[in-house]
Each structure stands twice: as structure tokens, then as C-alpha cells.
């Protein structure tokens, strides 16, 4: 039964039944245990191993706690799909196909997880905006020409926007990835930055 074929009344009846069975506030309500097929169990075990040995080493360390729970989220997604697809879902095993759909949904989130936890990703976005705005505020043509000719360093940018070096350096790496500027790492915390010759013309 696809969502697109449901009327509002059909949808409401389906959701009401599911909530009544599995999300009641009655502490004495019957509890249900839903099993999985052997194939589905093997599939989720392989996914857990894949996360540990293939996905985790490529992800930011801060994402580790989230990713170690990802196979559990895949099971919950599989259950959601299973519950929607059966009138009495607790009487049927979760299938390999349903488990695969749950895994696919979790896999689709990996790039978002990487960006959210990467020090040079989402957390650097607001600092990157401050850096760009600070540079755009330079309107004196002599100062603009000097920066274009000589570049600017991360310590100067820290002083301009009042943000600590680690956050500034991460934001500069983010801006470099998106070609707003070029960062030259000379093995010190004071990174050197080169701007595009037309940076101020289009700022």
C-alpha cells in the first residue's frame, strides 16, 4: 500500500492503529517482539562490520559515537517500513528487503554526518562567513592591492574577527575547499592566505 494511493482517512486509520498498538501510554498494554529473518540478521551484521572497518576510519573522530549506533538506526528504519507495509506487523518477520531499505536510508545520511562533525565542515561555516565579511569590509584600494599582492595571514584574520586560531584555520580550510581563497600551510599555526585577483571586484 503506497502512500500516494492513500486518502487522508486511510492514512489516519493506519497511523491511529499503529499508534494504538505500539505507542500507547497504557503501562499494562501488551508488549510485542518482532523478529527478523536469518537473511535480514546477516545483512545488518555485515552492515555493522562495514561501519566499523570501512566507514569509521574515513570519518571525523567526533562522528564515532553516532556511527557506532548507525546499524541500530537501520533496524529502526526497517521496522518503520515493515510496520507500514503490514496490517499486523508484529505477526511477520522483518525481511531482508526491508532491512536493506533501512540500511540504504542510513547510508544516505553518511555524507551529512561527515559534514556535521567535520571540524572544517558545518561547525566552520559561521566563522567562514565572518572571514568573508571582514575581507569585504576592506574598501581602501591601497589596502586591497597590498593584500592581493602580499596575501594575508591567519593571525591577522583572527584579530579582525575576534575568533580563536583553531576555528579560524578550520574555516579557512573550508573556504579553500570552495575556492574562495587559497591557503598555504607552512607548518605553523599562522597560515598564509592568497586571494583571487578579482576578489574585491566581485565582493
Automatic annotation (TrEMBL):
Pfam families: DUF3987 (PF13148). InterPro entries: DUF3987 (IPR025048). This is DUF3987 domain-containing protein. It comes from Desulfovibrio desulfuricans. The lineage of its organism: Bacteria, Pseudomonadati, Thermodesulfobacteriota, Desulfovibrionia, Desulfovibrionales.
